[in-house]
UniProtKB/TrEMBL annotation:
GO terms (BP aspect): carotene catabolic process
Species whose genome carries this gene: Oryza glaberrima (African rice)
Zinc among keywords: no
Binding residue positions for Fe cation: H214, H263, H327, H480
Alphabetized UniProt keyword annotations: Dioxygenase, Iron, Metal-binding, Oxidoreductase, Plastid, Transit peptide
Name the UniProt record assigns to this protein: Carotenoid cleavage dioxygenase
Cofactor descriptive note: Binds 1 Fe(2+) ion per subunit.
Main location: plastid
Amino acid sequence: MVDGVVTLLEAGKLVGKVILAGSANLYDGSIHEQSNFAPVDEIGGRTEIWRIEGTIPDDFPEGVYIRNGSNPLFGALHKVNSIFGQSEDIWVEGEGMLHALYFTKSGEGSTWSISYNNRYVQSDTFNTERDRQRPCFLSAIKGDPLAIIAASILNMLRFGKVFRNMSNTGVFEHAERVFSVAENDIPYEIDLDSLGTLCSWVVDGQWNMPFTAHPKVAPGSGELVIYGFNIVKPFLTIGVVSEDGKKLERKVDLKLERCTYCHEIGVTKMYNIIMDMPLTVDLTRILRGAPLIDFETESYARIGVMPRHGDADSVIWFDVEPFCTLHLINCFEEDHEVVIRGFRVPGSIITGITLEHTANEEPANQGPSEKSFPCLYEWRLNLKSRAVTGKYLTGTDIALEFPVINNKYAGLHHKYAYAQVIDVQGSLEGGCGTVRPKFGGFAKLHLQDNNKAHVIDAQRFENGPIAKITLPQRVPYGFHGAFIPRTTYNKT
């Protein structure tokens, strides 16, 4: 989407895919209030959309496309100065705001009605700051070590938690209920019709700890596989929620010896897939003046294969070369192997990647490589021989992120995937060798056709878009979203 226009695409066989804003344009080198990172106001309710160019297909499913993102309530990137030094916000710390586009058929089912709404996720800390009409939490992630420690202690003493509960990262549906989530908090159930926040979800009181932004539905059983990582022990806990969402069937401390920044988990028919990588969160680093989150280049990496209802002792660990993977495409079983596909980089976008170049070589002249950007990678873990093989599926000349597949194939063998392509030239303009990925076109990955990747410019498809929907206001850059078909939720 550009300037508030949602595009339904037909050429390239992506009919029915809805795109809201540059949702993965997260690492622009110029983060400021005038850019599309700037927050927007709530519009106050659902607004009918009348400006539609083209035609929405009759077989397009009724439902809601809903997306989550950071929308700071009192402005972005605050700094706090004290006798201990300075601490400051980072760009991901804004409160969560949901943006929803509703597709319904009226009359005899021949006329489309489309409306838009946006609303803040009303977490407990959001309500606290909104009621006081000012930011209350001190910045505690970036800054001088003593200032971060002081801010953490003061936040804990005043509010019982170190960070505000942002709920700005993901949206998921389970058991006909829709939730907003960020991995530093528990999920919040959302009324999909009004975008109002109904309640926090602790799975019948059994899960009161951090909750992943990427839970996975296990193929076959319909169970929801969840996890949460923590900066103190237990560092990583796996859970399995019943298909009806009423019971926590399994809760397992994996007994890790470090807090790995585990942003994704994989599932197959029988297993949970754990990515134990050296992107870690360590409080003791702050005392040394080092970052809270850092990539430990000399440390180990491994991938765990855990039976769905297993325990820590049942996990089979496979040692692999150190890597960082924020997002997986999919995992599945094939003969004696577990196949894992995701975007791998030997470093971390979160903490910043620096390209090596000489004084006479400008960063903008370099292309992406396995040392600079996330590229599509496949690990094959042989459960019989315990051997590991791995390879780049698209080589290292194309950089990708934010993948999606047809959810019907999650945990199963799949043919296709879609991702966003990093705009290399724009990324390297950050200067000083610092890589700040910007996202350009789309890639359609043919994973059973010699591992082809088709890069698509959504504004230059051969036949053009079949429909353009102009929204009533700008939608800021965000994180993750989901399309919820009307048949899967019970609200009108």
